[in-house]
Amino acid sequence: MDQTAYDLRERKRFYFHATPLRRFSVFLITWFFRPFMEMRVFGLEHFPREGAVIVAANHVTNFDVFPMQIALPRPIFYMGKAELFKLPVVEALFRNLGAFPVYRGEKDQWALRHARRVLAHGQTLGMFPEGTRSKGTGLAVAKTGSARLAIEAHCPIVPMAIIGSDRFFRSFLRRAPVKIQLLPPLLPGAYETPLALTERLMFSLAAALPSDMRGVYSDSPKGFKIQASERGA
């Protein structure tokens, strides 16, 4: 019997569309960040306008989710650490914004099942494959969750390189230059393993980042080549 059926989160209402509150919140967030961020978006033509898709990005600060959403024309649905959902008012707001809780440090079956629901509804699932912030140390070893979900849902992964979000609020006199680079979608191969797809994702992502942000993916393994179709603009 599926034990996740007894999870208390099943009693909550989660949304699989952009609610009016979400649309208004994105408008406010865009307005709020305008004095602090000068954002440039490249490769938007690689992002599908409909259908299930996973957007996988590098993760430097807690603010990454804002330029990530502002850059895209479709709502993104995120996993958020369960600690952020403790206050009822905040929890209700996050659910309206498309976020859903995940217990980190364990295999949270409910969160994985909900992520599958997002994709089954033909929506955009936002993921940080590293699982946590790199805090300026460059890309860390990625988990295979994004790849597993893509393989199960037979959907593409669009790598997103976020550069400059760590400079938010450092100066009120100058806006932080933020670059968002969307790379061509990665489609799971017929017999590709989650680990192989994860490595393809992360080395593709690393190629779009400055050398000091590539971390453990600085040196591509022997024989690994990023295809021309997977290079950013």
Task: Explain what the structure shows.
- The protein is of the alpha/beta class and 233 residues long.
- The chain has 6 helices and 7 strands; from the N terminus they run H-E-E-H-E-H-E-H-E-H-E-E-H.
- The chain has helices at 20-33, 65-70, 88-96, 109-120, 145-153, 194-207, and strands at 37-42, 53-57, 76-81, 99-102, 124-127, 157-163, 176-182.
- Strands 1-7-6-2-5-3-4 form a 7-stranded mixed sheet.
- Strand 3, helix 3 (88-96) and strand 4 (99-102) form a beta-alpha-beta unit.
- It is globular.
- The model is unreliable at 228-233 (pLDDT under 50).
End-to-end separation: 48 Å
Which structural class should the secondary elements be placed in?
A: alpha/beta
Separate helix tally: 6
Tell me roughly what share of residues is in helical segments.
25-40%
Coarse shape = globular
List the helices and strands in order: HEEHEHEHEHEEH
Summarize the structure.
It contains six helices and seven strands. The chain has helices at residues 20-33, 65-70, 88-96, 109-120, 145-153, 194-207; strands at 37-42, 53-57, 76-81, 99-102, 124-127, 157-163, 176-182.
